Amino acid sequence: MKRLLSLLFLLMAFQIGFGQEKYTTNSRNAIKSYEKARYLLDLNEFKQAADELNAAIKQDDKFIEAYLLLADVYRVTFDQLKAKESYRKAFAIAPNFAPDRYYYLAESELKTGDYQQALEHYKIYKQRGNPSIERIVLADKYILDCEFALNAIKNPVPFKPENLGPNVNTADQEYLAALTTDESVLIFTRQINRNEDFYRSYKKGESWTKAEYLSSNINTPSYNEGAQCLSPDGQFLFFTGCNRPDGLGRCDIYVSKKEGDNWSKPVNLGFPINTKGWESQPSLSADGKTLFFVSDRRGGIGSYDIWKSTLGDDGQWTAPVNLGSNVNTPYDEQSPFIHPDNQTLYFSSNGWPGLGNKDLFVTRLDSAGNWSTPENLGYPINTYGEESGLTINASGTKAFFSSNNFSGYGGFDIYAFPLPEKIRPIAVNYVKGVVFDAESKAPLGAIVDIIDLKEDRSIHTSYSDKVDGTFLATLSNGKEYVLNVSKDGYLFYSENFSVEKNQIGKPILLEVPLQKIAVGKKVVLKNIFFDSNKYDLKSHSKIELQKLIEFLKENPLTEIQISGHTDDVGDDKSNLVLSQNRSKAVYNYLIAHGIAEKRLSYKGYGEASPIADNTTEEGRANNRRTEFIITSVGR
């Protein structure tokens, strides 16, 4: 729609004419062809009009009006190279004939990467033409683009794109790649006969498997599906659907949930995300709580702006907020991609200084919640063409994008390239696990909660896949985490782990066996903390204790014993007393927080029940533990 409106706007040039009765030719045949071309343009017959104008020029190669009108035809039909050639021929004959047309000559030069000439001709336009205030503003903006581009070309950034190969790319169009955090799954858009559908490919070693049709639950024969993003764990697909029966506007954002190898029927996110306008190009933060997207709704700064909405505690999306003038301009901002570090946003724009059309930019969120001035990713990542749709891997080392500028398999193909150091995000890692029944080994769908231990803040809450039991969560480096996994009818699972600052590309891999609630079953509370040789509960223990309280409230007939254990360092008597006091500290905490005393007991075992070898520090650490054991499940 936007392209059509632009075309109609540019066609107004044909109706304006040159403000004169006579032409710069005396050839009747040339004038006849020229007049016929004008008639054909009224009918939007561009090719036939171009043929007539070329015929007019053949009759008189000094016919300036014919050159200029032919240049306009090429320009509005997006053949900028031929437009540039025709404008130049006209001005070579008479440099001052139609000085306002220098604006369009400069435009065609800018859009074909002829920056020095474009710079000169924008300046000539301002000097000799009769520009409106609006056109002066535009000309000044494009002059800045030309100056930026000339400097960028002198200072290129490293850029070595590699085609993802024939299993992903075909003679059709492939674009808009979305990637799971572990880089194991790629979902992209493929256009066949003007119909857009999603396809999926898996990473096997260094190669991608043959792409397969994603799902008939999402893809449709009647509508286009595109502009998608994956939640970092690959469990949710957010995408754009246009003109659907359940849509609120021209294009809306939808979500589908992964169900084993298939996907659920999409659900329209509804108001306030979607409106009567145009909402598209979603990007979800790593914690799943912030959705970035593009909209032309009221209250924006330009035609298309980037907005964000957060997921409230009630599970509803809040009223979207514009990212503001640090990101959005009076022009177009599109294709947002928020990196899993939750601080680095990549997007495309034709408003910030660039190399023409849309360029890729990066902006970073500071500690005060402000976005930095966007930085152009540089040449030759950006060119005079349109660049958009960038996806960055979790470690920040590799970018995925689509292009038709290289010798690929046909049309747009998907490529990857090493991201230059200067424009990389903060590297993040991930934890990947599988939840299963401890006895049957059957995969389980369960609630997975990961908490930043120091900040006492949940950073990831989701469900493991009910078909294969897998879960995945993005993690910042240099932090300690608490993992709690729970499911009705089962004891919860407790774990803690840390991710070192330099632990890039080394994910945490976990197996999570869940035990059914039964007498004699026990859980090691791995996130109960005491200082050495003390029994005062440290503040970080409250996370785990709250989980235990929730478990007991959800299972009101269950009774437990809290047991304390030590390693074999020190004398037996001291260890026994210490373990008794530690188990009592947990017992007292539970009673103080509403758990009936009759449901609880406690006991210290000292060093009598080791679960690991006391000859190593790791073994002794495992033996120093607090557990609870089921003593009754009621009737």
Automatic annotation (TrEMBL):
Predominant cellular place of this UniProt entry's protein: membrane
Renumbered ranges of TPR repeats: 64-97
Protein's UniProt keywords contain Signal: yes
Signal peptide residues on this chain, from the entry's feature table: 1-19
UniProt xrefs under InterPro entries: 6-blade_b-propeller_TolB-like, Bact_OuterMem_StrucFunc, CarboxyPept-like_regulatory, OMP_bac, OmpA-like, OmpA-like_sf, TPR-like_helical_dom_sf, TPR_rpt
Keywords for the protein's UniProt record, in alphabetical order: Cell outer membrane, Membrane, Signal, TPR repeat
All residue ranges annotated as the OmpA-like domain in the record: 519-634
Gene Ontology annotations for the cellular component aspect, listed alphabetically: cell outer membrane
Source organism, top-level taxon: Bacteria
Claim: Membrane is one of the keywords in the record: yes
Pfam assignment, any one: PD40
Subcellular location, record wording: Cell outer membrane
Gene3D superfamilies linked: Carboxypeptidase-like, regulatory domain, OmpA-like domain, Tetratricopeptide repeat domain, TolB, C-terminal domain
PANTHER family listed in its UniProt record: LIPOPROTEIN YIAD-RELATED (PTHR30329:SF21), STATOR ELEMENT OF FLAGELLAR MOTOR COMPLEX (PTHR30329)
Record protein name field: OmpA-like domain-containing protein
Lineage: Bacteria, Pseudomonadati, Bacteroidota, Sphingobacteriia, Sphingobacteriales
